[in-house]
Amino acid sequence: MVDAVVSFALDRLANFLIDEANFLGRVRQEVQWLKDELERMQCYIASAEERQNEDPIVRKWLNDITKIAYDAEDVIDKFIIQVHHEERKPIGCFPSMFSCMTWWEKVNMAEEVVNLHDIGKDIEELKIRINDLTRIRELYQLESSRIKGEGNSSNSLARLTQLRRTTSFSFEEKVVGHDDGTSRLLAKLFDPEPRRFVVSIYGMGGLGKTTLAGKLYHHLDVKRNFDCHAWVCVSQDYNTHDLLLRIISSFGFTAKKTEELQHMSDEDLERYLNGNLQGHSYLLVIDDIWKKEAWESIKRAFPDCNNRSRVIITTRSQVVAEDLDERPYVHKLRFLTFDESWQLFCEKAFGNPNANSVEEQLKTLGMEMVQKCGGLPLAIIVLGGLLSNKTQLAKWKAVRDHIWQNLKKDNIHIPNLFALSCNDLKYQLKLCFLYLSLFPEDFEIDVDQLIRLWVAEGFVQQDENQEMEDVAKDNFHELINRSLIQVGRISWGRVATCRVHDLLRELAIEKSRELNLLHIYDQIKHSTGNSSVISSCRREALYSPKENCLWLQQSNPRLRSLLSFDPYGYNLDIMTKITNMYTEFRFIRVLKLDGFFIYSRTLSEEIGKLIHLKYLGLRESYVSHLPRSIINLRRLQTLDLFTIGMEVELPNEISKLPELRHLFGMFDRNLEIDSLTKLQSLKYVSGQSWISINTEKLGNLRELWIYGSVQTTNEFCFDSIAKLERLEQLAVKLDYNDCFTSLQPLTRCSNLKDLRLYGKIEKLPEEIHNVLPNLECLSLEDSYLEDDPMPLLEKLPSLMILYLGFKFYSGKNLFCSAHGFRRLEILKLDVKDELEEWQVEEEAMPRLRGLSIPEDSSLRIPERFRSIPPPADCDFEEHWFGISSRSHAFGCAFGCVLCNFSFR
Q1: Which positions fall inside the NB-ARC domain (predicted)?
Q2: Residue 433's pLDDT is what?
Q3: Helices (H), 27-55
Q4: Residue 649's CB: how many other CB atoms inside 10 A?
Q5: How do 638-640 and 228-233 pair as beta strands?
Q6: Is residue 212 a contact partner of residue 188, using CB atoms and an 8 Å limit?
Q7: Torsions phi, psi of 640, nearest 5?
Q8: Cα–chain-centroid distance for residue 429?
Q9: Residue 857: which residues within 8 A CB-CB, separation 6 or more?
Q10: How many CA atoms lie within 13 A of 175 on its CB side?
Q11: Strand 228-233 relative to strand 329-332: parallel, antiparallel, unpaired?
C-alpha cells in the first residue's frame, strides 16, 4: 500500500509544477528532482513490500519513503499557503490600489515577493533523506518490481498462493449452507444444452467460493456425467505456460514426459491439450481467477464438441464473472444466515451442529461473536477452530474483546485476505478503499456523500472526458464488482448506501495505521496509539469524543481531514477547540462536522484561513450565516449547511468560489450563484430564490431540488429549467394551491433521467415520449390529473421505475395497452379508495419484477400481477430535506417548512 501513498504524492507534485509555475522560479528544478527521485523509488516499492514481513530493515525503508512522500506533500501545501498570503497582502503604501486590482494582477505581483528560501531549504532536507534511502536500497539489493516474475517472492503471501494451488480442491464433506445455490448450479451443469459454457461463482474473499466449487467437483453425479476432470488455481500474476502445464497434469494427460512438455511452446501445449479433449465431455474448474485475460489466454485449448462440457470459474470480481464468456451462468455467493453461521460455528467449535450441552454463558458469547462475523464462512471457521480447545469463560471473553486480532493471529488466510483483494488495484482505488475504514463499524455510508469526499481528498484522477464525480462513481462500482464493498439501500434504482464487512474494515484500519493514513478517536473503545503518530496522521475520525478525550489535548498541524460521526455532536468543548484551531488546521481539505451544534449560528471569520479546504460539511449544525471570509476558500467544492427548518443566508462572496460543485441547505433568499459555472448540485432552493437566478450560466447543474411557491401567479414554469441541458435529476414540490404549466420546455433537457413532481398538473404532453426520451425514473404525486396518464406514460421508451403517489389521478380506471411500458421494472401505486380498476393487456410490462400496492387498497388488478412481489431493492421514500417526507411529524419543534407541505 506504500505505492498508493507515493503515487498520490507524485500526482500532487506533477500538478504543483503545472499550477504553481509562475511562483516556483529557481526552485522549479529542485521540485522536479524530487518528483523524479520519488518515481525511481516507486519502482522498488512492490518488491520491498513483499519482503517487509521478513526483514525489519526493508520495513523501515518503506516507512521512511512513506514519510518522505508525506513531507513532500507538506512542502507543497505550505508553499501554496505562502503564495496565498502574499497575493492577498497590500503592497507598499497603496492598499486601496491593491484592492482595486484583479485577482490575476494580485497573483502576478505576489510572484515577485514570495520567499522561495523556505521551500528550497525543505527540499534540500528531503534530498539528503532520499539519497540515504538510495544507498540503503542498493546495499540491501531491493530489486525493481518490473523484473519480478511469478513465483520469485518468498513472502507469506506467495506461500499462501502456493498453498491454495496444492489444496484448493481438497474435499470438505460437511458444507454448511448454500444448499439452494448447490441445487441450482448442479442443474446448470446437467443442463441438456450441448454447447460448452462457463458457470461463474463470484463473491467476497472468504465466502466459500472454492468450497462450493469443490462440493460440485466431487459430487458423484458430476463425476459420472463427465469423462475427464481438472482443477487449477490461478494466481494474480499467472503465467500462461505454467497454467497450461498444470491443467494438463490435472487432467492426467501424461502421454508425453514432463520434461518434454516443459520445452513446448504455449501454442503447442494448447494444441496438445485440445487434441486430448476432442470427443470427450470434460469439467474444468478454474479457481480464484482475477482477470478475464487468464481465461482468454487458454480458452482455445478447450474444444466445444457439443457434448455438454462445462467450465466452472470462481472469482471475486463481478465483471470477470459476467464477461468471461458469451452467455455465462453467473451465481453470486451470498453471506450465510445467522442460523447457518451458528451451525457452522458449532461444527467447528463443539464438533456437532448444535450446542445443547454447552454452558449457557459460552453459548451467549459464541452467538455474539458469530453475529460479528457477519455471515462470512472463513471468519466463522477460524473462530470456531480458535475456540475449540478453550473451555474457560475468561478465554472466550478475551477472544470476544479482540476478535479480529485473535482471528488474524490464528490463520494465515485472514491477514492475507485483504492483500489478495487489493494487490492489483490502481493506487486511487487503494486509497478509496482504505478511506472507508474511517467510517464506524456497521455504518451505512451515504454513497453520494462518499463520492464527494473522495473527490475532495484528491483520490480521483482528473479525466478530460468525464467529471471527477463520474470517475469516482466508476471507482465505487469497481470496488463493488471486486466484492470489497457491500451494497446497502437501493433508492430509485441507484445504490444509496453501502457498507464494508467488519473483517475487511479491521484489516483496512490496520493497513491505514501502518501508513499513518488515519486515526480513530472512540472514547467507548478507548482510542489507542502513539501520541507522536496521532499528532502527525493525515486523517482523523471522531466517534464519541468526550470533554477529556485525548484529541482535545493535542493538535495535529499535518491534518488533512477531520470527520465526525458522533451521534451526540453537540459537544461545546470540542466545537470550541475546532474553531480555535483554524490556524493549526492550515493544511486541512475535509472538515465534516455534521451534528455539531454551533450556538452562534455563524462560523468564525477564521474559517477563511483554511485555504486548502475542499469539503465543508456542517449538516444539522444550525448554521444560518457565513462570514465574508468565505471568499478565501477558493478551492471549496462541497458546502453542506443543511439543517431541518433552518434557512441559510449566504453572503454575496459565495459567487467568488470558482470550484464550488455541490451546495446544500435551505435557501429562501437571493442566491448570488450565477457565476458558479462548475455547480452540479443545488438542494434545496425555494421557488422565489430560483426565479432570481440567471440559469443560463449554470450549464453544469445536474441535480436540482426546488420547493415552495414560485411566483404570484401560482404557476411553475419550466422555461428556466430548460436552459439546464446537463440536468439529470429534477425534483419540484409546489405549495398546495400551485400548479405546473406545460412540461414541454423540458424537451431541451435531453439528459434528464429522474423527474419527481409534487403538485397539480393540468395535462401531460401528448408527445411526452419525445419530451422525456431518456427518463428512467418518474414520480407524480398530488397531480390531480383528469385524464388517465397510463396511455401516455407507457410510451416513455427508457422508463424503468414509476411511482404514482397520492392523488396523482382523479379518475377511477387505469388502462395499459399491449405494447406499453416495455422497459418498466418497478411500479408503485400509492392508492387506496380513489381507484377502482387497473386493466392491463397481456403483453404489457414484460420486464415488471416489482409491484407495490397498499394492502388495504380496493383496486382490482390483473390476476397475473398478484404474484409479483413488492420490490425488495428499491426505496420509494422521498428524502426531501434529508429526511423521509412521510416519517416527518407535523408541528415539529423547529417550525419546519415541511410542516407547511401536504405530506400524508
Answers
A1: 183-352
A2: 93
A3: 28-42, 45-51
A4: 14
A5: unpaired
A6: no
A7: -115, 105
A8: 10
A9: 829, 831, 832, 833, 835
A10: 21
A11: unpaired
In this structure, the answer to whether residues 267 and 387 fall within a common structural domain is: no
d(CA 226, CA 305): 13
> In the chain, which stretches have pLDDT less than 70?
84-116, 142-175, 412, 523-535, 545-554, 567-583, 710-712, 833, 873, 876-904
What is the greatest pairwise CA distance in the chain? 96
Q: Are 390 and 348 in contact, with CB atoms under 8 Å apart?
A: no
- How far is residue 74's CA from residue 79's CA, in Å, rounded to a whole number? 8
Comparing CA positions, the residue from 150, 145, 120 lying closest to residue 40 is 145
Domains held by the chain: number: 6
For 848, the grid coordinates are 415488471
- Domain termination site, one of 514, 539, 562: 514
C-alpha–C-alpha distance, residues 97 and 564, integer Å: 43
pLDDT at res. 554: 65
In 373-486, alpha helices (H): 377-387, 393-401, 403-410, 413-422, 427-435, 447-457, 468-481
Is 608 found in the same domain as 469? no
Q: Are 582 and 610 in contact (CB under 8 A)?
A: yes
**Which residues lie below 8 Å from residue 183, measured CB to CB, with a gap of 6+?**
none
How many Å apart are CA 669 and CA 689, to the nearest integer? 6
pLDDT of residue 569: 55
Q: Which amino acid is at 359?
A: E
Residues 6+ apart with CB under 8 A from 141: none
Locate all alpha helices (DSSP H) within 607-660, ordered by sequence: none
Which residue among 669, 688, 704 closes a domain? 669
Question: What value does the CA radius of gyration of the chain take, rounded to a whole number of Å?
Answer: 31
- Bridge-partner residues for 145, per DSSP? none
Q: Which of 784, 778, 779 is nearest to 762 (CA)?
A: 784
Q: Cell triple for residue 656?
A: 467568488
**CA–CA distances in Å: residue 151 to residues 161, 249, 263, 290, 802:** 9, 19, 19, 17, 54
Grid cell of 584 as nine digits: 493549526
- Type of residue at 58: V
- To which residue does cell 444448499 refer? 179
Grid cell, residue 416, equals: 492475507
Using DSSP's 3-state secondary structure scheme, residue 616 falls into strand
DSSP letter (8 states) at residue 412? T
Cell numbers placing 873 = 431493492
Q: Which residues of 306-320 are buried (b: 16+ CB within 10 A; e: fewer)?
A: eebbbbbbbbbbbbb
- pLDDT single digits (tens) 33-71: 888 988 888 888 888 887 787 788 888 888 999 999 999
Can you give the pLDDT at residue 106?
47
- Assess if residue 740 is contained within a domain: no
| Cis peptide bond upstream of 684, omega within 30 | yes
- 239 in Cβ contact with 269 (< 8 Å): no
Range of the domain at 395: 338-415
Q: How far apart are CA 570 and CA 883, in angstroms?
A: 20
Look up the CATH number of the domain holding residue 500. Answer: 1.10.10.10
Q: How far apart are CA 156 and CA 50, in angstroms?
A: 8
Question: Where are the strands (E) in 753-825, listed by range?
Answer: 754-758, 760-761, 777-781, 801-804, 813-816
451 and 494 part of one domain: yes
Same-domain check for residues 216 and 311:
yes
pLDDT at 524: 58
> What DSSP string describes 523-555?
TTT-----HHHHTT-SEEEESS--TT-GGGG--
Q: Is residue 393 part of a domain?
A: yes
622 and 644 in a single domain? The answer is yes
Strands 445-446 and 497-499: antiparallel
Please name every residue paired with 315 in a beta bridge, in sequence order, or none if there are none: 202, 289
Q: What are phi and psi of 264, to 5 degrees?
A: -80, 150
How many angstroms separate the CA atoms of 31 and 376, rounded? 48
Residue 813 CB partners (closer than 8 Å, separation 6+): 788, 835, 836, 837, 838, 839
What are the grid coordinates assigned to 869, written together?
412481489
